[in-house]
Amino acid sequence: MTLVDTAPDPAHRARRALRAPGVRMGGLALLVAAVACAGLFAGRGVTPEGVRAVLLGVGDDPTAEHIVLQLRLPRMLVALVAGACLGVAGLVLQSALRNPLAGPEVTGVTPGAVLGAVTATGLGLAGWESPTAVVVAACVGGFAGAGLLWLLAGRDRGDPEQTAVYGVLVSAVLAGLTAVVLLVAPGELGSVVQWLIGSTEGRVWQHWNLLWPWAAFWGAAAWLLAGPLTLLRCGDEQAAAAGLATGRGRGAALVCAVALTAGAVSAVGALGFVGLLVPHLALAVFGADLRVTLPGAALLGAAVVCGADTVAQLLSPLLATAFDADRLTLPVGALTTCVGAGLLMVVARRRADER
Amino acid sequence: MTSATPKTPEVVRAEDLAFGYPGRPVLRGVDLSIRTGELVALIGLNGCGKSTFLKLAAGLLTPSGGRVLLDGDDVARLSRRTAARRVALLHQSAPSVPGLTVRQLVRQGRYATRGPLGMLREGDDEVTSRALADVGVTAWADRPVDALSGGERQRVRLAMALAQDAPVLFLDEPTTYLDLRHQLEVLQTVVRLRAERRLTVVMVLHDLNHAARFADRIVALREGRVAADGPPAEVVNRRLLAEVLGVDGRVGIDDEGGWPVCYPDHPLDPLRLLRNENHIH
After folding, report:
1. For residue range A250-288, what is the model confidence (pLDDT) as tens digits?
2. CATH (one of 3.30.43.10, 3.90.1210.10, 1.20.1090.10, 1.10.3470.10) for A62-354
3. Is residue A207 less than 8 Å (CB to CB) from chain B?
4. Which residue ranges traverse the bilayer (chain B) (predicted)?
């Protein structure tokens, strides 16, 4: 600690400027834009020149135009918004539960949402042609999954590790139920598998039109809870002493988190580890003031999911050649799960070191 | 003692206050009245109900019997926000919050006064800065709380409670885990702010010598009841040591300050304590 403040030299000032949240947010926004562009260029069927021609409006190839504007563009936008939803949902959950190991995937929210979507589809209540019903079913499932964890964890709710263990248990049970539904009603198996792994294949404007207002509404609601959530991170006792009705604040936050997750799941399925790991990244980049970090988590989630989708599309042809299966496509969920599992180990190790 | 004249209105009033968990009563009917500007030390053995009393009086627990009036209103009926504007409570310990800077943590104390959408209001930043200066941590404002030592962290948490800008301050063992130097720093800060802001302070202390030196009034709890209540010079004696704190010891007078000083010698047989049912007043 220095008692005398020395005049900041230019280099120091430049470093300070880099640390300003606005600068970081701007940089991240540029990254998201870059990733989104890359997403438009990646994939089969159209050459990069063809994409550029379509985007500049000078192309005369109707197939290329259809692929870029009707397939790739909505797919990229859906990936961005779904990633943003998962990033925010994860940060809200981790803050509300004061549990760095929480995330929609491991608190029963995502598996519950998948079960809801699969069941609704299996019962013929919903399908790709009726996305609203899928969102509703995913929401109901998400709340049920989170509620199940709440009941099971009982008195261990305050203990991050115990809650994580129960979360794995709940997720396994819900995944088992999903499998049962698949066995009983295998009608739309093809599309259902996409929910299980998480995929952005075949997302069209209809999905986008449904997803963005939902994400905007619940994202704004989550941001308005930034104050209470920051306080909840300080512990219930301190939060209550500072004037927060902790039960009500936590309840509102959980509703936001489940709604955001359900929206993402109904659009792209269960993308593994995004909601669990993006918050750690966001906190590391933007610090603990959630008024800044929540939007940061949205941008990071968007960049991660869209980036993973792009990478998956670039890897798919290589894998297809390697396995001699030319129709093979790598779902983005498979990629986020593999990368996420590795990152989770890093987080868990660091957490163990801290204690 | 000089600032607390009997005529000042009471700011906290506990009436037959009771609280307990199934099979384990903690408070068994506490009547206590605290006047504006008083500095009260709560003493007693572990588990005698000191922390519980503070939490009840701040409205953080619901009593199983009796009530607490805060400025004349039943605290259990106040909203969390209103209660937090009237009384700030510094808990015994708090979990660490990775990444939060000192200023960000202290600013959390402003929560109760924020606008409907959680926006900071005009003056909030000034109150935050004043709270940082009050405990002398302005120089670390942008450092992460996690990087501070225990004593430094305690001062920061005190600043967070001060940022609530409430007229009543409850401190639950503010000096526990601190070395002697930091203990004195925290206590002297409290004494100074109480004089400057005319705060009413109730603090749980384990060190009877600190209580005797810094408080106007000592309230001793024993098994959920008030066992002694009065100015240090009247209350601190061998009987208090024996019957409330369970130790045999001697009590003298500080040569320079004139306050009582205790020299605890050895713990008393717990059986003798239990048999001794009459309370001292």
Report:
1. 889 989 999 999 899 888 888 878 998 999 999 988 988
2. 1.10.3470.10
3. no
4. none
